[in-house]
Amino acid sequence: MNKNNNPYLTEISQELRRNLTKEEKHLWYDFLKALPQTINRQKVIGKYVVDFYCASAKIVIELDGSQHGGQKMKQKDQERDAFLNSLGITVLRYSNIDIHKNFNSVCVDILSHINTSSVSKLTPSPQGEG
Protein backbone atom coordinates (compact mmCIF):
# COMPACT_ATOMS: atom_id res chain seq x y z
CA MET A 1 0.00 0.00 0.00
CA ASN A 2 1.22 3.47 -0.84
CA LYS A 3 2.25 5.28 2.37
CA ASN A 4 1.06 8.58 0.91
CA ASN A 5 -2.53 7.44 0.46
CA ASN A 6 -5.05 9.12 2.67
CA PRO A 7 -6.78 6.32 4.66
CA TYR A 8 -10.02 8.33 4.61
CA LEU A 9 -9.97 8.54 0.80
CA THR A 10 -9.11 4.84 0.55
CA GLU A 11 -12.19 4.07 2.63
CA ILE A 12 -14.33 6.34 0.44
CA SER A 13 -12.99 4.75 -2.74
CA GLN A 14 -13.82 1.27 -1.43
CA GLU A 15 -17.36 2.38 -0.62
CA LEU A 16 -17.74 3.96 -4.06
CA ARG A 17 -16.54 0.71 -5.70
CA ARG A 18 -19.25 -1.16 -3.82
CA ASN A 19 -21.88 1.36 -4.89
CA LEU A 20 -21.22 2.27 -8.52
CA THR A 21 -23.80 4.45 -10.21
CA LYS A 22 -25.96 2.87 -12.90
CA GLU A 23 -23.84 4.59 -15.57
CA GLU A 24 -20.55 3.50 -13.99
CA LYS A 25 -21.81 -0.10 -13.84
CA HIS A 26 -22.82 0.04 -17.50
CA LEU A 27 -19.43 1.39 -18.63
CA TRP A 28 -17.51 -1.02 -16.37
CA TYR A 29 -19.35 -4.27 -17.04
CA ASP A 30 -20.21 -3.64 -20.68
CA PHE A 31 -16.87 -2.23 -21.85
CA LEU A 32 -13.96 -1.34 -19.53
CA LYS A 33 -13.73 -4.66 -17.68
CA ALA A 34 -13.11 -6.55 -20.96
CA LEU A 35 -10.22 -4.35 -22.11
CA PRO A 36 -6.76 -5.93 -22.10
CA GLN A 37 -5.40 -2.90 -20.20
CA THR A 38 -5.86 -2.82 -16.44
CA ILE A 39 -8.53 -0.30 -15.46
CA ASN A 40 -8.98 0.63 -11.80
CA ARG A 41 -12.35 1.72 -10.46
CA GLN A 42 -12.61 4.55 -7.94
CA LYS A 43 -8.84 5.03 -7.72
CA VAL A 44 -7.25 7.44 -5.24
CA ILE A 45 -4.85 9.83 -6.97
CA GLY A 46 -3.52 12.56 -4.71
CA LYS A 47 -6.44 14.11 -2.85
CA TYR A 48 -8.99 12.85 -5.38
CA VAL A 49 -10.94 9.68 -6.09
CA VAL A 50 -11.33 9.23 -9.85
CA ASP A 51 -14.05 7.09 -11.43
CA PHE A 52 -11.76 4.97 -13.63
CA TYR A 53 -8.00 4.99 -14.17
CA CYS A 54 -5.87 3.30 -16.83
CA ALA A 55 -2.29 3.59 -15.55
CA SER A 56 -0.66 2.18 -18.70
CA ALA A 57 -2.23 4.97 -20.80
CA LYS A 58 -2.26 7.58 -17.97
CA ILE A 59 -5.95 8.23 -18.58
CA VAL A 60 -8.71 9.04 -16.11
CA ILE A 61 -12.31 8.50 -17.17
CA GLU A 62 -14.90 10.57 -15.33
CA LEU A 63 -18.66 10.19 -15.62
CA ASP A 64 -20.45 13.39 -14.73
CA GLY A 65 -23.99 13.49 -13.44
CA SER A 66 -26.22 16.54 -13.28
CA GLN A 67 -24.39 17.81 -10.16
CA HIS A 68 -21.44 18.72 -12.41
CA GLY A 69 -23.48 21.40 -14.20
CA GLY A 70 -23.19 24.09 -11.53
CA GLN A 71 -20.48 26.76 -11.64
CA LYS A 72 -18.98 25.73 -8.28
CA MET A 73 -18.65 22.10 -9.37
CA LYS A 74 -17.22 23.12 -12.76
CA GLN A 75 -14.51 25.06 -10.91
CA LYS A 76 -13.72 22.04 -8.73
CA ASP A 77 -13.58 19.81 -11.82
CA GLN A 78 -11.16 22.26 -13.49
CA GLU A 79 -8.90 22.26 -10.41
CA ARG A 80 -8.99 18.47 -10.26
CA ASP A 81 -8.25 18.17 -14.00
CA ALA A 82 -5.34 20.64 -13.69
CA PHE A 83 -3.86 18.57 -10.85
CA LEU A 84 -4.21 15.32 -12.80
CA ASN A 85 -2.81 16.96 -15.96
CA SER A 86 0.21 18.12 -13.90
CA LEU A 87 0.90 14.40 -13.27
CA GLY A 88 0.78 13.71 -17.01
CA ILE A 89 -2.70 12.21 -16.80
CA THR A 90 -5.31 12.91 -19.48
CA VAL A 91 -8.86 13.33 -18.16
CA LEU A 92 -11.74 12.14 -20.32
CA ARG A 93 -15.15 13.41 -19.20
CA TYR A 94 -18.50 12.05 -20.31
CA SER A 95 -21.94 12.92 -19.05
CA ASN A 96 -24.35 10.29 -17.81
CA ILE A 97 -26.52 11.29 -20.77
CA ASP A 98 -23.64 10.31 -23.10
CA ILE A 99 -23.56 6.88 -21.46
CA HIS A 100 -27.31 6.45 -22.03
CA LYS A 101 -27.60 7.90 -25.54
CA ASN A 102 -24.14 7.53 -27.11
CA PHE A 103 -22.61 4.52 -25.35
CA ASN A 104 -20.85 3.14 -28.44
CA SER A 105 -19.36 6.54 -29.27
CA VAL A 106 -18.07 6.90 -25.70
CA CYS A 107 -16.44 3.46 -25.92
CA VAL A 108 -14.84 4.25 -29.29
CA ASP A 109 -13.51 7.55 -27.91
CA ILE A 110 -12.04 5.89 -24.81
CA LEU A 111 -10.43 3.14 -26.87
CA SER A 112 -9.02 5.72 -29.28
CA HIS A 113 -7.36 7.61 -26.41
CA ILE A 114 -6.00 4.42 -24.82
CA ASN A 115 -4.61 3.18 -28.15
CA THR A 116 -3.13 6.58 -29.03
CA SER A 117 -1.47 6.80 -25.63
CA SER A 118 -0.12 3.26 -25.88
CA VAL A 119 1.27 3.85 -29.38
CA SER A 120 2.93 7.14 -28.39
CA LYS A 121 4.70 5.37 -25.51
CA LEU A 122 6.02 2.70 -27.87
CA THR A 123 7.11 5.10 -30.59
CA PRO A 124 10.44 6.78 -29.89
CA SER A 125 10.39 10.51 -30.44
CA PRO A 126 12.72 11.78 -33.16
CA GLN A 127 16.10 12.97 -31.91
CA GLY A 128 16.75 16.70 -32.03
CA GLU A 129 13.13 17.72 -32.67
CA GLY A 130 11.15 19.83 -30.33
Give your account of this protein's structure.
- A 4-stranded mixed beta sheet has the order 1-2-3-4, with helices on both faces.
- The model is unreliable at 122-130 (pLDDT under 50).
- α3 (71-86) links the parallel β3 and β4 (90-95).
- It is built from 5 helices and 4 strands, in the order ααβββαβαα.
- With 130 residues, it is an alpha+beta fold.
- 48% of the residues lie in helices and 19% in strands.
- The protein has a single domain, classed as Endonuclease, Chain A.
- Which stretches of 5+ consecutive residues score pLDDT under 50? 122-130
Rounded Rg: 16 Å
Topology order in helix (H) and strand (E) letters? HHEEEHEHH
Separation, N- and C-terminal Cα atoms: 38 Å
**Widest beta sheet: strand line-up:** 1-2-3-4
The assembly state of the depicted protein chains is single chain
- % residues in beta strands: 15-25%
Main sheet characteristics:
4 strands, mixed
Query: Superfamily at the CATH H level?
Result: VSR Endonuclease
| Annotated CATH topology | Endonuclease, Chain A
Whole-number tally of structural domains: 1
Instruction: Note the overall shape.
Output: globular
